[in-house]
Amino acid sequence: MQGLRQYLPILDWGRSYSRNQLSNDLVAAVIVTIMLIPQSLAYALLAGLPAEAGIYASIVPILLYTVFGTSRSLAVGPVAVVSLLTAAAISDVAQQGTMGYAAAALTLAMLSGAMLTVMGLFRLGFLANFLSHPVIAGFITASGLLIAASQLRHVLGVEAGGGTLIELGETLLPQLSATNLVTLAIGLPAIGFLFWVRKGLKPMLRRAGLGPRLADVIAKAGPVAAVVVTTVLTWGLGLEERGVAIVGAVPQALPPFTLPDLSPALISQLFVPALLISIIGFVESISVAQTLAARKGQRINPDQELIGLGAANLGAAFTGGYPVTGGFARSVVNDDAGAETPAAGAFTALGLAFAAAFLTPLVYFLPKATLAATIIVAVLGLVDFSILRRTWAYSRGDFWAVAATIALTLGFGVETGVSAGVLISILLHLLKTSKPHVAEVGLVPDTHHFRNIDRHPVQSDPTLLSLRVDESLYFVNARFLEDCVMNRLAEGSPVENVVLMFSAVNAVDFSALESLEALDATLRRRGIKLHLSEVKGPVMDRLKGSHFIEHLSGEVFLSQYDAWCRLARQGQTPGPVKAAAE
Amino acid sequence: MQGLRQYLPILDWGRSYSRNQLSNDLVAAVIVTIMLIPQSLAYALLAGLPAEAGIYASIVPILLYTVFGTSRSLAVGPVAVVSLLTAAAISDVAQQGTMGYAAAALTLAMLSGAMLTVMGLFRLGFLANFLSHPVIAGFITASGLLIAASQLRHVLGVEAGGGTLIELGETLLPQLSATNLVTLAIGLPAIGFLFWVRKGLKPMLRRAGLGPRLADVIAKAGPVAAVVVTTVLTWGLGLEERGVAIVGAVPQALPPFTLPDLSPALISQLFVPALLISIIGFVESISVAQTLAARKGQRINPDQELIGLGAANLGAAFTGGYPVTGGFARSVVNDDAGAETPAAGAFTALGLAFAAAFLTPLVYFLPKATLAATIIVAVLGLVDFSILRRTWAYSRGDFWAVAATIALTLGFGVETGVSAGVLISILLHLLKTSKPHVAEVGLVPDTHHFRNIDRHPVQSDPTLLSLRVDESLYFVNARFLEDCVMNRLAEGSPVENVVLMFSAVNAVDFSALESLEALDATLRRRGIKLHLSEVKGPVMDRLKGSHFIEHLSGEVFLSQYDAWCRLARQGQTPGPVKAAAE
């Protein structure tokens, strides 16, 4: 039973489900459903898919996440960044608008679902950590800009496309003169209205005396108002005949049963994009889930979350959807609206199923410009260049990783951008550890402490060179330590003993072991003994397993002070104090 | 002048060149020349090039290394592993035996020369450190096996080829019945003789009363004896007509002036292989140079070595050669024979130029089986599986990196093998640091020291959780620490203060900073304060630059003991001693 419950969190919260929780969950579901209808249509459009795919991707996936997920308020479905990644991946293998395009979206969802599930079963949730915070922030910001730029064509009523800022500019700019002014007259006010709803409406409602909760709900319903007003206008004024692109006929049906195309050629083409989508989707989802859980002192199990998201994506693959993940905006709304258990998600799914079966005729006259406006306003909220300033102030390495991620995402598309960001941050980390800080230390008078002789007034002994190594030793920096020691032993130096202080050395790999052996041999030829001090337990256990310790010319001291007492000429009597910071 | 001398080491040793050095260098040059003639022919054969390319690659490159290199005894020219890599790289773009094949070899040498030079000018010598010692050892062992297997066809007198052990087996085994027995009757005894020369001749000569130096020189001349005997036999007995493949006509000329093919398509195809060849060649060369220099207390400048090898490869590109590097065997012979300055290399080049101009007719009847025998015996000396045992005993991570490198090199070829080895060792290192050792520490009674409560009998306080973090904090492990702390704070724990002891934290990157902020916020919500202790200077400088320290709920203590004195309930009075290792 414990095994089953581990994989089915619903068994935990389901058995104590109360009437009070039920009513809270129902209220949250109504609010989220209203918000999700236009959002789902819009993101499907962004992914290059028929509008109904967005609704379908919100029904069965949510139900499956309810069963397998661990977050109490995460809302799963299509999200902006994953929709953009989906468009980028499928555009390489099929033409937008064709059957092949929609089929490839199913394959992508299936691959992603399978990968997430496997990662969850093998407990590989930590793989998400390879995306550093600055890389994620830079990627989200650049993706937001790309998405907004890609939606401009719907607001202008022209044809344009592309996966990079340059391609979008090149296809869009020549069309500017062909702008459909009626479309623009819908799109621009919609954008303005939605920005105002976002920034100005809630404070205004509060001033008008509404409670914070109600003001918030009304503000969140803003997009629905834009949808209703522009749809009615388009229908009433016959704007379709004036060139306003509309959503048109959306099938009035529950999600269909679909089979993804599993041809080996397609799978091999979509494998890497699916991996990227899985990892980025997981990172987005887990960040939201952990943020919301922390507020209430709940805990999220990342490996079970992988299984939950994997099930959701497999569900999307078989019910006409496309890759999904836990979305930020919808989860926050869900949480704010009072959702207490994943059952709120299930009720949302029922609401959307009702909409799919009965309400789709209502969106026939919905202008695409309105959907584009909701996307633009939503994603511009993701754009945050402050990460550049903050990383610049804290660490140049992180800054360059963000800057490269943003520039490459805008210039070469989302897949190149995020892959490069990961590689650059790993490379910069390796470079940083390739030349570790090595400080010569001396005894702080009247204590047992040793400090950097360049920063502190300390005692030293010309025959004893004590070096504190501030990094684990491994292949990337193994040779550096050798060079570093030899560079400090100029011709004719009086040094007879070298002590390496290992208090900050957390590991010594095989390459570093061989370098230490080589260093010992080189020093021995010059009549100098090599010693170690303050070696940590796990490192010492390992060194003892090799023959290094028994062949070492010198000794291993428990503390640097013991080494000083044994090796310094003046023993424990204070020697000349070296001046600080020369 | 200092600037010029930095890039032209010849100006250093050249101005004090003495008559005594001259005579020593001359003796060494004669010995190395005799050894190099068959070796150069053999390695050209291994690279799939005409025999003379091996000689040409040994003349101008050596002269250029003499001018730009820093090692006093390194001998530059064709080597086994680089020859194999060359064959693997060019086979993908041209058919062996065609003009295009030889032209691509020149392009490869030029690309490699340009890369090495640029790396030297930008001081990127440390890039070689990304090849860990175990990966190099595994790669060399697997390459040795591949090379020996690829030469079997010459010993058997059949046609076969391929870049992996499987391909070699598949093409060779069906031909076994077609073995040319006369060729085998030359090849097998040659292999046996050369093995005996390597292992048994020198001790025998010593027992016969010869001095160690002379015995060594005679043993090194073994391959020349094999060449002379088999050439004379083939000529005298007319074995060519019995199907024995011979070297045939080699142009009797000084190295020609050649222009590499610089078409963009070829360059883009050869770019990655050239980078691999450059880095592997550099690693091999610098290892040899440093080993030999250490014996004499000399120093090698890795960045200037890059320039020296770069010049040598550029020279090879314009004089009918192919990629070269500093070879192990030839350099050791050069050093043993008494070479004192790089001038010995220059004299070797003159000797080889003389051979190219006048002696090539002598090798007309040299059987390819003999050359194959010299290669087989030379490379089997590189095969050393003990690295598997040694890494297994020391560290499983290193073991898996070696094992994968060997298996992938044999199964998928040299380029895949070494690339995978590098990636695997980087990945394993990142994984190792992704879940750092975090120990709960307590006060060792009557001292100021803190140790792991699971290993030592120490004092602890239920309201104070002290954790020593044994790793730098960066994006890969940032979230781990958060989880780690939260997992130790079970529901209802009496902890009021958490102290993170940072004595082994050498860096905190931006992702880790954000995780620490998130941890502080989460703890604050539970009414728990977060403190740091023993933060190193460089880490503290950085944290002060952010707002983390000022917003921190707790304090930063200079030592863990200070933290204990302030925060522990019992202050400095000893509390209950926790039992060791429960």
From TrEMBL, chains A, B:
Pfam families, per database record: STAS (PF01740), Sulfate_transp (PF00916)
Membrane protein topology class: Multi-pass membrane protein
Stored InterPro entries: SLC26A/SulP_dom, SLC26A/SulP_fam, STAS_dom, STAS_dom_sf
Domain STAS residue range list: 454-553
UniProt entry tagged with the keyword Iron: no
Subcellular localization: Membrane
Protein name, per record: Sodium-independent anion transporter
Organism listed in the record: Pseudooceanicola antarcticus
